[in-house]
Amino acid sequence: MALHFELVTPAKLVRSEEVHMVVVPGMEGEFGVLEGHAPFMSTIADGTVQIFKSAGGQPEEIQVRGGFAEVGDKGLTLLAEHVED
Amino acid sequence: MASLKELKGRINSVKSTQKITKAKQMVAAAKLRKAQAAAEAARPYAERLATVMGSLAAKVGGQDGAPKLLAGTGSDQRHLLVVVNTDKGLCGGLNANIVRAASAKARQLIEDGKQVEFYLVGKKGRAPLKRNFPDRIGQHFDTSTVRDPGFEEAEAVADELLEMFEAGKYDIAHLIYPTFKSALVQDPTVQQLVPVPTPEVETGSGDAVVEYEPGEEEILEELLPRYIRTQIFGGLLEVAASEQGASMTAMDNATRNADDLINDLTIQYNRSRQAAITTELIEIIAGAEAL
């Protein structure tokens, strides 16, 4: 019961792991992605991505700038132009 | 016949040249590994972007309101050739090959009655292209100040190109860069950059209804500049890998050449030395016999 999450920048594959939930700063508001989310695509605003490794745990935060998010059968793929850990 | 001292000097000078080429070869080998790793690391992003682009472009592309970057300006008169060269030499025929490919493309376009302008990235292509097409050189982007051209440089180049496109300076842009095949082979590639060619994607995987936010067209409009940036970034990475690969091969050849040269010179040196000794002996013996 996990969501496959990938964070990719032009320079490298930053993350590829199983997580519980990811909160993405979408252009039209933040949205959380859990396992089994419907296919969805959105551009993302500059902001913070929160990664919840487990339910109720402390989120890990990553700053992203410019990009978009895609939710498919394979999980969530975040394409960001710049990433700051 | 050169004197012994002269020969010795030449052997030494070839030896020191060989030291330089050998060092450069080893440096290139180490850098090649790094450049290849960078090119590989960039692949996932480019692939995913191409997939998304393909599925979106297939949906929006046929409609009237498709973005200009995808549909084109409707004319194909003015062409911009973006040529990516290296900044440093010592890499064999790499730059010459790129310049040749660019010139061939330009001549073909000119023959078809189109207007051609160049946009040059990297130092080494400037002089030969300027010689071939003195009045068609447009702008030049300097990458020689940074050690490893990265995404920031690609972004800067892409932004400038997009600005020129917005201003209506050209209709079609091509990217010319070497594709790294192996350390021995780097093929110059000509690729259309603007309008963005629709990437091929296998349909069928996207049968599920995808929800878009804000909308398909808005996303596509954001995506296209990003896609162009990624293409240019890919070109920069390829040129970096190609430069190191070509440099490695060229320097390997040079080192081997120097080896041959040293061998030849050493044999010549020894022969002259022996000839000198023999002459001396003959002189001594002749002197002793005369007594």
For this entry, give a set of tags.
heterodimer; A: 85 residues; ATP Synthase, domain 1; globular; B: 291 residues; alpha/beta; Pyruvate Kinase, Chain: A, domain 1; five-stranded mixed beta sheet; ATP synthase gamma chain (chain B); hydrogen ion transport (chain B); ATP_synth_F1_gsu_CS (chain B); proton-transporting ATP synthase activity, rotational mechanism (chain B); cell membrane (chain B)
Written overview of the protein:
Chain A: It is found in: Cell membrane; Endomembrane system. The complex is a heterodimer of chains A (85) and B (291). With 85 residues, chain A is an all-beta fold. Chain A is built from no helices and eight strands. In chain A, strands 1, 2, 3, 4, 5, 6, 7 and 8 form an eight-stranded mixed sheet that branches. The termini of chain A are far apart. The mean pLDDT of chain A is 88. With 291 residues, chain B is an alpha/beta fold. Chain B has one domain (42-246): Pyruvate Kinase, Chain: A, domain 1, CATH 3.40.1380.10. Chain B is 60% helix and 14% strand. Chain B has helices spanning 4-41, 43-60, 68-71, 94-111, 126-132, 151-166, 216-290; strands at residues 78-84, 115-121, 137-141, 172-180, 186-194, 211-213. Chain B has a five-stranded mixed sheet with strand order 3-2-1-4-5, sandwiched between helices. The mean pLDDT of chain B is 87. Chains A and B meet through strand 5, strand 7 and strand 8 of A and helix 2, helix 6, strand 6 and helix 7 of B. Strand 5 of chain A pairs parallel with strand 6 of chain B, so a sheet runs across the interface.
